Amino acid sequence: MNKVLIVEASDSDRRLMSALLSNVGYEPIAVGTMEATKDAVAKLPPGAAIVAGLRFSGGTAKELVNWLKAEKKDFPVIAIVERLGDTDATDVMEDHGAVSVVQRPAIDKRLPELMKKYVRDVDDVIFTKGGLIHRQSKEFCEIEKVIRQIASTDVNVVIIGESGMGKEMIALEIYRLSNRSGNALMEIEAGSAALVGKDNPESGRSKTYNRIKGYFNNTKGGTIIIKNIHLLDFEKQSVLLHILSEEHPDVRVICTAEPELLEMVREKSFRPTLFYYLRELDIYVPSLRRVKVDIPIIADYYLQHLASEKGEPPKRLSASAVKLLKQHSWPGNIRELKVAIILAAQNVDGSVINADDLTICHATPIMKETLLLRDENEERCRIEDAMSQAQGVKAQAAKLLGIDRKTLSYKLKNYGMG
Predict the structure, then answer these.
(1) CB contact at 8 A, 312 and 142
(2) Does residue 82 share a domain with residue 20?
(3) Which residues form the Sigma-54 factor interaction domain (predicted)?
(4) Residue 366 and residue 331 in contact, taking contact as beta carbons nearer than 8 Å
(5) What pTM value is reported for the model?
(6) 247-267 pLDDT, tens per residue?
(7) Do 112 and 241 have their domain in common?
(8) At what angle are helices 34-42 and 61-70 packed, to 10 degrees?
């Protein structure tokens, strides 16, 4: 059951629309003021819709639409008007503000019809954002198993992996499968100026506390996804730690981070105590160069998706194209692979993409990692990656790996890598 926010000045009309929507399977939330609307919007789950009268206490439907745009809240607004020909009805539709208008006398019939069109399930919303791409590597099969195991719990999770590996999609999948999926979902970028929230000068607390605390208040019973938690500055770390350790909010926190977070914790530039509150469980996402068996599957996913959007048969990769894709180290991971595949599909006239049709960037950043090995498979992958980045120059590859050239030569011979 998904939620519909009703913003209406008239008590009787709020009751009427609430009863109408309840009877057809929706969960209405009715408010009568702009202030209450803003609070309610913060708690809406993905896929919800808003029904608003043209005027209500403290605001108008058009002002509400403009506020939603400014806050980057992607909820469709259906405006209730007296007559379709009124100037106000036209005004609220300008610049694609409200998605539709309904005459008040036609509420009984039109409102349920529009709900079917604009209210969506959480699953559908997450899929349109780019759902999980199911793959065959044992590493990713294990990740999917862990997701299913922890989704039904309330533990906080940190998802660690390089940029471009779809960590946010894993976070959304945990939310989708959880028992909180019908409740509010808030996504926050830790390194962005958008992490400001709403201040309350009367609280006697710092602005940073008020703003971060506001996120938790607005997401009570729901989930907060904090992207790139390693970019959170020390002051915000301290506030977040206080909220989690002292106030124990009814909010699940899922964080994404790049591997440097672990180094920051060791160096204490990221508070270790906060890390362990956030990382009750973790998921490690291996880079694409370590799961090359997944490359053709991911590439085919984007070819299928692009073909579906265009309404035409999907193109396919030749053996030479697959070989070239597997040879590249993909420092930008899935994000980089997606661009290469879409570019090739758009520029090839036929149905087959060959190696010559692929445009692959070779301006590759140097890895900042040493050969801190956990098993032979990982060691081999890192050596292959370093040799690829160094274009076969052993001295440069050894430098990337943090070992001497003699040791690298021994390992190459040991693994039969020439």
Answers:
(1) no
(2) yes
(3) 133-346
(4) no
(5) 0.70
(6) 999 999 999 999 889 889 988
(7) no
(8) 40
